[in-house]
Specification:
Length: about 240
């Protein structure tokens, strides 16, 4: 009943939250106003409130998950990245941006269903080659982001290389037709949070490092270095991923 009351009237997150608050207020208010309520009635109200909370938790999970790859989406990534700078102390964290090489050509040659399978597999490979506490998201198209906390630049570089090598050696073959779509490779760029003033600067530096990895021949990892921005500015207008 509670699920119906929320979803039958709601078209967006704000509506759902308002509906949930109304139900919770109604439930708690009723309990306070009727001291003679039986234990059974109070128990029913409690169950209804628990159901509302479960529905809200599920809605939040869906709203923050990429439906294709089952990892975090751009909305969740933006929130997590902002949280990296939530304290006054400079965090020991890094942002990795990764982009599948020549993905548009693969998508055009074999079709979107194949492209979708590749995206899902790449997400699995990334997730399988980072620590469980690393935050992994698909930020759009064929681009992924990884927020790594508590690691040095060298450790993050090794993580990137582990992902890159694992993907390069992952078979991408159609079992029915025998068509081999691989090898699929990925380029990665990263920057350290301690070297950036805020989330925007960190993202920009990581993105520049990614483009430099692409420009250097793809299928490689590049940490952000001073001077990259100048080189990137010269070439980005003519560069095509």
């Amino acid at each position: 009943e509670t699920y119906h009351r929320i979803n039958s009237k709601s078209t967006n997150s704000a509506d759902i939250l308002r509906s949930a608050i109304n139900i919770l207020t109604e439930a708690t208010g009723s309990t306070m106003a009727h001291g003679e309520q039986t234990v059974v009635q109070m128990s029913e109200r409690s169950k209804e409130m628990d159901e509302v909370r479960r529905e809200l938790d599920e809605y939040k999970r869906i709203a923050n998950t990429d439906s294709l790859t089952r990892i975090a989406n751009r909305r969740a990534f933006d929130e997590k990245l902002a949280a990296v700078y939530s304290s006054d102390a400079r965090p020991l964290a890094g942002l990795v941006l990764a982009d599948i090489d020549n993905f548009k050509k693969i998508n055009d040659a074999y079709g979107h269903p194949v492209g979708d399978k590749i995206l899902a597999t790449v997400a699995t490979v990334i997730r399988s080659n980072v620590r469980k506490d690393c935050f992994v998201a698909r930020t759009g198209g064929e681009e992924f982001a990884i927020i790594v906390e508590g690691n040095t630049a060298e450790e993050i570089y090794q993580t990137c290389e582990r992902i890159r090598i694992a993907l390069e050696t992952t078979p991408f073959k159609n079992s029915k037709t025998g068509v081999n779509y691989g090898p699929i490779t990925i380029s990665l760029g990263f920057a350290m949070a301690a070297d950036s003033e805020d989330a925007g600067e960190l993202y920009a530096k990581s993105d520049i490092a990614l483009y430099c990895a692409k420009n250097a021949g793809r299928n490689r990892t590049k940490p952000y270095e001073d001077g990259m921005k100048k080189d990137f500015t010269k070439s980005w207008l003519i560069y095509k991923r």
